[in-house]
Write a structure and sequence with these properties.
By secondary structure, the chain is of the alpha/beta class. Helix content is about 40%, strand content about 10%. The chain is built from nine helices and five strands. A five-stranded mixed beta sheet has the order 1-3-2-4-5. β2, α6 and β3 form a beta-alpha-beta unit.
Length: about 250
């Protein structure tokens, strides 16, 4: 009867002549491939991509400042791209202000209008003590001037939906293609009373109203995404829909 021979193995992963012999005879398994080349390749690709896209998000003035640092042909490419983007945005910027809403005109001014563009509705508080609602009213004006292709609207929540809870204001409704796409109840998920224009810009990107590489977006470093639950469509409070005329 054959007896199993104990073969001494110090480190089966070591690159030794002895281990090579053992692997050849199937005593120990083949050494798994090193992840180092894969990691290095991914790193080099990331560095290359970052270099190629280093001018993304810069406006025409910022590109002009780089004339002494960048290749002229490379800059000309991005200038042409920015001019084309600016032309497209200018043609689409037909709103550029906050539109007050009346309930009888809601379907026309919001639901139907959303078939042509994104429509964002701020349901405001009826109280002068709601800091978040006051803050959003100011930021709403800034956003409307900056992103003229989006229709920003505003209406008192209790006039839009009878009995709408004051505690749920401000509420943001995002309409597209004739229906509500997203909703945000209060500014808690964006930063509450500390919500900034940058937070709302990230929110616009999250809901798809603005592209993430839009040069108009302020490039302040984000501390955290505006709201993962908004992107996923989870954990947001549902707006009551008891009134047949409200949408």
């Amino acid at each position: 009867m054959d007896q199993r021979v104990h073969v001494p193995i110090d480190d089966p992963n070591a690159d030794t002549e002895w281990n090579d012999i053992l692997r050849k005879h199937g005593v120990i398994p083949e050494k798994p491939p090193s992840p180092t080349p894969i990691i290095e390749e991914a790193l080099q690709e990331a560095i290359k991509r970052a270099h190629e896209e280093r001018l993304e998000g810069k406006d025409l003035d910022e590109l002009d400042e780089l004339e002494d640092e960048e290749d002229e042909a490379f800059l000309a490419k991005y200038r042409k791209q920015r001019v084309a983007e600016l032309s497209t945005i200018t043609q689409a910027s037909i709103y550029n202000q906050v539109y007050p809403l009346q309930k009888p005109d809601y379907a026309r001014d919001v639901t139907e209008a959303s078939r042509k563009a994104y429509v964002l509705v701020h349901l405001t508080s009826s109280l002068g003590t709601n800091i978040e609602s006051q803050l959003l009213t100011e930021l709403w004006r800034d956003l409307a001037r900056k992103f003229g292709e989006i229709k920003f609207c505003e209406m008192r929540a209790d006039l839009c939906i009878e009995g709408y809870p004051e505690r749920n204001t401000p509420t943001i409704l995002i309409y597209r293609n004739g229906d509500i796409q997203k909703q945000l109840v209060t500014l808690r998920e964006l930063g509450g009373q500390s919500t900034t224009l940058e937070d709302l810009q990230r929110f616009l990107v999250d809901v798809g109203a603005v592209k993430d590489n839009d040069y108009r977006i302020s490039r302040a470093k984000p501390t955290e995404p505006a709201s993962k639950s908004i992107r996923d469509g989870k954990n947001s409070t549902t707006v009551d829909d008891d009134d047949d005329d409200w949408d």
